[in-house]
Amino acid sequence: MIPEWMKGASTPFSSVLVANRGEIAVRIIKAVQEAGLRAIAVYSNPDKGALHTELADHTIHLPGDSLSENYLNSDAIIQAAKLSGAQAIHPGYGFLSERADFARAVERAGIIWIGPSPEAIETMGDKISARSRMIESGVPVIPGDEIAIPDDSDHLGILASVAARVGYPLLLKASAGGGGKGMRIVREPKMLRTEYEAAAREASAAFGDGTVYVERLLTGARHIEIQILADKLGNCIHLNERDCSLQRRHQKVIEEAPSSVVSEDLRRSMGESAVLAAKSVNYVGAGTVELLLSANGEFYFLEMNTRLQVEHPITEMITGIDLVQKQLEIASGLPIGIRQESIGISGHSIEARIYAEDAKRGFLPSIGKLAVWRPPSGPGIRFDSGVKEGDEVTVNFDPMLAKLIVHAPSRMAAIRRMDLALSSFIALGVTTNIGFLRNALTHPAFTSGSITTDFLDNTPISEFHSEGSEPSVLVAIAAASKRLGVDRSGGGLSQGFTDDHTGHAGDPFQTLSRSFP
Fold it and tell me: Could you tell me if 210 and 204 are in contact, meaning their C-beta atoms sit under 8 angstroms apart?
């Protein structure tokens, strides 16, 4: 049955295949089902019995042991859609979400693509072409040189010439990528060759394209991004900003909305530039324009993510707009149905990314069984997760386990709510970054709103370890004891807990967690 909001759409669909896994697959599956549509999940061998497969209306197994054989195999995804009768495909984020060739293949197969056009993905996916388009459209870009560094015998000579024009310190960035991959800071000429080769090598491995371009490094900047929505009728609006300045090695850690340093006038200017950027490529769907806000208050285009963002929930919390539902509506041919002047800001929202990683060991990924998984709940708390208690955390996928989102009337109230939520989060069996998140969240630089993108990388990691970040030991012992079915009331066990909410070598719970059913 076609739901009410889709009646009259030019290309209605009743089933959606979610070409992803983990927490974003769960998020999209729930939105699809809430719209009255049939949700179809795909899964590989390691994901057999995963949460997203349990929630879906139908599942299709993707064969093969490597990502290139399953989640990154466009032919396999399209075949799964045909076998399941899916009429539309939602790519989520990561994997194939920003592959223009995949979007084209989906459309050629007669399946509705829930996302922007392949042409928009292609233009904005290449940082060099995106910069050129922004310059043509009048959107401010970071001072630099958008000339590609060709991979030939004279590339180092060309690189040195470009670097001299741009000036030091500078940033080498992979043209085809994102997420901090293929990105290197060069502070002086003698490091240029080494860092370029490292950036090109990493870019080639991650994106199949080693092209690197040069950009001036803006120090003391904030990372601000603008959420946009655009429909097939030419309407485009922005949904205010998110501040993603708390990041480590160009990977976001904690995001918040709105930003504590963006005024109404600046918000309007940034929003107008984001809409201009989207319209320059005839964008359709949900997308994000990422900007750098310099210390002097000027902002510059960084890149555009032609997909849903990991941090989209905080925009939903302050605007009351379900972005995935809007993606479904727009893909069906419906107008956005929202006027720019009606977009307000209600309260403050913060998102923390929960990773299986050890902050004390250089953020190395952690593996093991989620023996105890007790996420927080309560007023103003949202939890987006792709795992459940008893699941095995492996090295097959990205170590992000979940996202914890809070909403409160003010920024300080949101910080307190997030800290309380993290403090009651019990995760045993794998090392997590929960303790690190608590200490970063309550660091004076964050609470004062004065952090910049280089804050975490320039602050000793020891500042983020303290005794105040442990979970409730009694709650954790009670949870573990219940799982074990034995009496673990001995007080000595509490000394094994760390500020990462799990055991390390020598910790009594490290051994116990391996035997949990």
Answer: yes
